[in-house]
Design brief:
about 220 residues, alpha/beta, Rossmann fold, Arc Repressor Mutant, subunit A, six-stranded parallel beta sheet, about 15% strand
């Protein structure tokens, strides 16, 4: 059939990849042109195949599917990404859409909702698995990034990731939760924290909070007790 939507699957479970292929094969509007079991191979295949759609897991053995989504959208802006993941927490969904994904389906309902999602995403629409509660959808709409008007030169020496980590630290988010939100290890969060403290010449969490409040990164009223 002409004008079939070409799909690349990136998931580290061979049986699940075969299951996705089987579901997609039943719909004449789509065809699977490749599959990969890790993020690096998936990104390489995306560059080579230039698919219309990528079906992506978040938990990959080498890199986060969130990072791969960001990479694909950067080099192939016409390629849509739909996440199919076991994770249903709001932070995973939020980060996926921020990274450029257009759809999100949980694995438990993939058999029922995959094609519906692919059709919506291929039309340029956003798709969120209806098995995810209305509360999740509502919460998702409350996640805009806070833009701070910052004039301090030292803050500009931080990398974008360090700025992101600093904002979360200043809001009182734990190392473990920051790691989960950003899909990095707690050790990496600690490394970023050490670098932030060094660059800003700060000597503890309270100094970091005061500094963040002073430059307008967080609401100072949040920390009034």
């Amino acid at each position: 059939m002409a004008n079939k939507k070409r799909i690349l699957i990136i998931d580290d479970h061979p049986l699940f990849r075969e299951g996705l292929k089987s579901i997609i094969a039943r719909n004449p509007g789509f065809e699977v042109v490749g599959d990969a079991g890790n993020g690096r191979k998936g990104l390489r295949m995306a560059r080579e195949l230039k698919p219309d759609l990528v079906v992506m897991d978040i938990s990959l053995p080498d890199k986060s599917g969130i990072d791969i989504t960001r990479g694909i959208r950067s080099i192939l802006p016409e390629t849509y990404v739909m996440i199919v993941s076991m994770h249903s927490k709001i932070n995973y969904i939020s980060e996926a859409f921020r990274a450029g994904a257009s759809g999100y389906v949980v694995k438990d309902s993939a058999a029922d909702r995959l094609i519906q999602g692919l059709k919506a995403v291929s039309r340029g629409e956003c798709y969120l698995d209806s098995s995810l509660s209305h509360k999740v959808v509502k919460k998702l709409m409350e996640f805009p990034e806070k833009e701070a008007k910052i004039t301090d030169a030292r803050y500009e020496t931080l990398t974008p990731r360090e700025q992101q980590v600093m904002r979360l630290l200043a809001e009182g988010i734990s190392t473990k939760e920051i790691a989960e939100r950003l899909f990095i290890s707690p050790k990496t969060v600690e490394n970023h924290r050490t670098s932030i403290m060094s660059k800003l010449e700060l000597h503890g969490t309270m100094e970091l909070i005061r500094y963040a409040a002073r430059i307008g990164l967080i609401d100072v009223d949040l920390w009034k007790g």
